[in-house]
């Protein structure tokens, strides 16, 4: 971003232009100065002269192109920052909206673009593209718009002023990896000292919400529910697990581990309050469309019951559910409960707001020779065309929306940020001609500055209802007499989706330790070690509502013909309040402030409700949370706290929660009657089936019905009683199965176990595949035979190589190896299996000819270089995630993230297999060079087979599995 450096760039490029006065030190509140008019005219001249393709380019990118091409004199706008963050290599990160296809992706790569995220569902590609290629990309018929990448932030409130001002030194990728490796090592060494249920550090919100006593009183712990989070990342997941702060088996969407640790801190909070709930995670930070995709994946693929996030993308509309809110609507319609941070954008009641909304009021003040009249913020009270911003609002994104439907705005509004001298500091003037979004955005300078003010100009079209938000900034009266105008309602986007829970924050313990701006009053403290009550105060930074919506998600008007302040639908947001200012074990989040911390507390309490009331409809959960919330602040529902602060004991009492058993069948043990080691065609065998009660309550009247859909297989008896199984205990019974003599070798016997018991989670069902045939001792090796294939940096499409398998038929065993002749850490080495300068960036996936997929490794190895002579086998004990950079170059045998055996179950192994390596973080490169599959078939009757030799290969050939 050029910001104040634009003038330096102009000098360097030799650009010239007419001199402009920069010293008109005062401006009338109801008129633009001549200086301002000249600068806006210069910018509007670009807008008026846009060609067809240019109208599809973000206006800030367009101006940056013209500055660099010397087609615009930057002396005409001496203080301008274009808003285009151009890298030293001349590239910009953009969101390309349109029709996603292989053709478009190929064209982007040919233009020099790096692909960062792809969403076919939402028609969006995030890419790092050369600035000089933007116009050609926009000119394609399958591209609707090329936008500066839509940015986002989490709702964490930073406690350190230096960090809040973005002055803290950012940890490098390598420094972070070294720190996390050291923390993990120390955690493993101290593992014997950790607690049993949820580690030695517990959120104060557990006590403040009465969740600790509620678990004891009602006997519910989250059993039977899955609670999943979306945030920046889970870098320290393994460390938290080693410390006992998080359980093993957190379900992470492959490739969506993200970057950062706010997700880890959120999961710790959830686990503190609902210690026996299953957990899941996906990143929200690859792009806005990727965030929406991941919301859907967590519900429809990972089957999460409760989902929580703490993220706001700046382009999320306040007036219509955009793609992220639409994804929330999809999962809530499917029965999921969704919680989201209300935000830390301030509220009118505490004087911390940077939000105004209302109908456009024509000031009658035109702007130069082109078009447009300025909005009058004072309305009936006078005429003021500027909105003043506090001098303590550095690097603040300011968004403008108006009440046109998404993708169909034909009313054109522009936004300008000016300094006290009347110079344009930033601007946004995209074209709206009927196919674009009603959205503009500017940013305040990184250092803030006195005298900043905003102006909204209606370039063309009709008056509309406006929303102007300085996100994490504040509108405040200026020294030169401008009055700040604020209105409640800064809670926007998917947090305001109709069926989502928007969660405000109240401190659980210590007060937020710094003034939000100089001169602010003290921040409130929480009740810990007591519980929340009627005197609870919300954080002064928590965002307020309500939220006025004008359109349904599909763009249908809610009140046709009325898109003014008297139209639309008013949603009562936020919904509820929960704890922040709580402790976690995660570095950087030892005290976790913000609505980012509040939302997971609320989600965990909802998890307890579902655990004690399985199958409770979402509407009933909402009723319980709203009706039992303790009323705080003004009597009744209010814009800052919603219905009030929630208490777990009150919610569970309202719903009538009780401890529930959860009895499930475990992996059976098979013992053939003939004493053989394998189940063969024609065999009769004893099947020993364990059933474990993982629930909170006693599983009484437990029984199992065991059946098989495999033709000709008999099971006797069909059912057996397991009696009463206490929590944590296992019952065992034997069944007998008979396999027909005609059963084909390698075709498994499938068993379905249906467990019934007295409880709301009953019945549970499990399916098991029993291999049929004696595994062959002969291992056949199949290697990738092509040239090295480069793995594109930070590209979700990755690199894929084929391996052709033939003559195996059905496989009894499958291992995968990354080979190499000579192992070393040279990141360009041609003698290793995969050379890469940061193995921890990689996710490896194996795809069978049938289309079945398994994640082999996932973000292990941190900053270490190169995979060489590594075997992945289902029988291995350790996951690759257990290694550190110190172990590079990587060798040894590891357990894959997902079992490889499932890729060959019930189907022939012959055909083309594919291995894909995806680099999910920027800054490092490498190549796939030498990989192999190792398969064992089955012993055929009357055929003698000789075991393969065991040992490592030499040269480039495959590593032999041990």
Q: Can you walk me through this structure?
A:
With 962 residues, the protein is an alpha+beta fold. 17% of the residues lie in helices and 28% in strands. The chain has 16 helices and 48 strands. The strands form 12 sheets. Strands 7-8-6-9-11-22-25 form a 7-stranded parallel β-sheet, with helices on both faces. The longest helix has 18 residues, at 595-612.
Keywords:
disordered N terminus, seven-stranded parallel β-sheet, disordered C terminus, alpha+beta, 17% helix, six-stranded antiparallel β-sheet, single chain, 962 residues
Question: Helices, strands, pairings?
Answer:
Elements: H1 6-13, H2 34-48, H3 59-68, E1 91-98, H4 102-110, E2 114-119, E3 124-130, H5 134-138, E4 143-148, E5 152-154, H6 161-164, H7 173-189, H8 204-208, H9 211-218, E6 226-231, H10 237-242, E7 251-252, H11 262-273, E8 278-283, H12 288-300, E9 306-309, E10 311-313, H13 323-333, E11 337-341, E12 355-359, E13 362-366, E14 373-375, E15 387-388, E16 397-402, E17 412-418, E18 424-428, E19 439-443, E20 453-460, E21 465-470, E22 501-507, E23 547-549, E24 569-571, E25 576-580, E26 582-583, E27 591-592, H14 595-612, H15 618-628, H16 648-655, E28 663-665, E29 669-672, E30 684-693, E31 699-707, E32 714-716, E33 719-725, E34 730-738, E35 749-756, E36 764-770, E37 775-783, E38 789-791, E39 795-805, E40 813-818, E41 834-836, E42 842-847, E43 853-858, E44 867-872, E45 890-894, E46 911-919, E47 926-928, E48 931-938
Parallel strand pairs: 6-8, 6-9, 7-8, 9-11, 11-22, 22-25, 44-45
Antiparallel strand pairs: 1-3, 1-4, 2-3, 5-10, 12-21, 13-14, 14-20, 15-20, 16-19, 16-21, 17-18, 17-20, 23-24, 26-27, 28-30, 29-30, 30-34, 31-33, 31-35, 32-34, 35-36, 37-48, 38-47, 39-46, 40-44, 40-48, 41-47, 42-43, 42-46
Helix pairs in contact: 9-16, 11-14, 12-13, 14-16, 15-16
């Amino acid at each position: 971003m050029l910001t104040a450096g634009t003038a330096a760039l102009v000098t360097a490029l030799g650009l010239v232009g007419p001199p402009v006065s920069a010293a008109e030190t005062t401006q009338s509140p109801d008129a633009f100065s001549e200086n301002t008019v000249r600068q806006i005219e210069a910018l509007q001249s670009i807008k008026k002269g846009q060609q067809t393709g240019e109208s599809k380019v973000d206006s800030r990118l367009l101006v940056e192109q013209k500055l660099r091409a010397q087609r615009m004199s930057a002396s005409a706008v001496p203080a301008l920052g274009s808003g285009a963050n151009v890298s030293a290599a001349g590239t910009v990160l953009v969101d390309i909206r349109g029709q996603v296809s292989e053709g478009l992706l190929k064209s982007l790569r040919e233009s020099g673009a790096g692909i960062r995220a792809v969403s076919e569902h939402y028609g969006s590609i995030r890419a790092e593209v050369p600035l000089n290629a933007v116009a050609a990309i926009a000119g394609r018929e399958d591209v609707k718009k090329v936008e500066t990448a839509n940015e986002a932030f989490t709702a964490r409130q930073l406690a350190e002023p230096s960090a809040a001002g973005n002055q803290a030194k950012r940890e490098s990728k390598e420094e972070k990896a070294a720190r996390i490796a050291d923390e993990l090592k120390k955690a493993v060494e101290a593992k014997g000292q950790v607690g049993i249920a949820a580690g030695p550090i517990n959120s104060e919100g557990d006590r403040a919400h009465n969740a600790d006593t509620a678990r004891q009183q009602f006997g519910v712990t989250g059993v039977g529910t899955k609670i999943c989070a979306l945030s920046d990342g889970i870098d320290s997941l393994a460390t938290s697990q080693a410390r006992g702060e998080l359980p093993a088996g957190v379900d992470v969407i492959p490739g969506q581990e993200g970057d950062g640790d706010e997700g880890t801190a959120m999961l710790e909070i959830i686990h503190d309050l609902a210690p026996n709930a299953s957990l899941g995670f996906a990143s929200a930070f690859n792009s806005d469309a990727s965030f929406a995709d991941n919301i859907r994946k967590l519900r429809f693929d990972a089957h999460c019951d409760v989902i929580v996030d703490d993220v706001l993308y700046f382009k999320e509309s306040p007036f219509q559910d955009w793609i992220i809110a639409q994804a929330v609507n999809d999962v809530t319609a499917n029965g999921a409960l969704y919680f989201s941070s209300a935000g830390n954008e301030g509220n009118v009641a505490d004087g911390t707001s940077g939000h105004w909304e209302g109908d456009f009021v024509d000031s009658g003040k035109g702007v130069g020779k082109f078009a447009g009249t300025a909005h009058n913020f004072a309305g009936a009270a006078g005429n003021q065309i500027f909105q003043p911003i506090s001098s303590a609002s550095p690097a603040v994104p300011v968004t403008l929306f108006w009440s046109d439907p998404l993708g169909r705005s034909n009313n054109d509004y522009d936004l300008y940020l000016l300094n006290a001298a009347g110079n344009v500091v930033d601007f946004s003037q995209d074209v709206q001609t009927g196919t674009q979004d009603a959205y503009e955005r500017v940013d305040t300078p990184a250092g803030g500055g006195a005298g900043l003010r905003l102006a909204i100009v209606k370039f063309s079209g009709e008056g509309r209802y406006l929303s102007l938000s300085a996100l994490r900034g504040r509108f405040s009266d200026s020294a030169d007499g401008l009055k700040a105008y604020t209105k409640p309602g800064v809670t926007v986007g998917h947090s305001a989706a109709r069926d989502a829970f928007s969660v405000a924050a109240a401190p659980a313990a210590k007060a937020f330790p710094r003034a939000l701006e100089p001169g602010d009053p003290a921040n409130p403290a929480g009740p810990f070690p007591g519980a929340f009550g009627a005197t609870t105060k919300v954080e002064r930074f928590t965002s307020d509502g309500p939220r006025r919506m004008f359109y349904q998600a599909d763009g249908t008007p809610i009140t046709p013909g009325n898109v003014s302040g008297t139209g639309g639908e008013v949603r009562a947001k936020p919904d509820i309040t929960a704890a922040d200012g709580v402790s976690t074990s995660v570095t950087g989040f030892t005290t976790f402030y913000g609505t980012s911390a509040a939302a997971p507390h609320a989600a965990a309490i909802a998890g307890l409700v579902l655990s004690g009331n399985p199958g409770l409809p979402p509407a009933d959960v909402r009723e319980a949370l709203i009706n039992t919330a303790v009323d705080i602040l003004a009597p009744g529902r209010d814009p800052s706290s919603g219905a009030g602060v929630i208490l777990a004991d009150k919610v569970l009492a309202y719903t009538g929660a009780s401890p529930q058993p959860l009895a499930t069948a475990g992996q059976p043990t098979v013992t053939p009657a003939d004493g053989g080691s394998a189940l063969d065609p024609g065999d009769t065998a004893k099947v020993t089936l364990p059933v474990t009660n993982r629930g909170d309550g006693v599983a009484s009247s437990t029984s199992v019905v065991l059946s098989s859909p495999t033709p000709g297989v008999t099971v006797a008896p069909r059912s057996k009683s397991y009696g009463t199984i206490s929590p944590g205990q296992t019952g065992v019974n034997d069944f007998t199965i008979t396999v027909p003599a005609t059963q084909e070798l390698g075709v498994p016997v499938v068993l379905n176990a249906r467990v019934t018991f007295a409880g709301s989670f009953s019945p549970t069902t499990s399916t098991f595949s029993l291999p049929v045939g004696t595994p062959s001792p002969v291992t056949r090796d199949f290697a990738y035979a092509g040239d090295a294939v480069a793995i594109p940096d930070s590209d979700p499409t990755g690199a894929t190589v084929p391996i052709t398998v033939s003559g195996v038929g059905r496989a009894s065993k499958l291992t995968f190896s990354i080979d190499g002749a000579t192992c070393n850490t040279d990141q360009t080495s041609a003698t290793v299996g995969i050379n890469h300068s940061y193995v921890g960036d990689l996710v490896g996936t194996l795809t069978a000819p049938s289309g079945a997929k398994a994640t082999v490794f996932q973000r292990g190895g941190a900053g270490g270089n190169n995979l060489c002579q590594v075997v992945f086998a289902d029988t291995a004990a350790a996951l690759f995630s257990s290694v550190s950079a110190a172990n590079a170059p990587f060798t040894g045998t590891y357990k894959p993230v997902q079992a490889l055996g499932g890729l060959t179950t019930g189907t022939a192994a012959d055909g083309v297999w594919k291995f894909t390596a995806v680099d999910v973080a920027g800054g490092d490169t490498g190549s796939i060079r030498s990989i192999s599959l190792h398969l064992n078939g089955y012993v055929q009757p009357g055929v003698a087979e000789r075991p393969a030799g065991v040992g490592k290969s030499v040269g480039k050939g495959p590593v032999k599995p041990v």
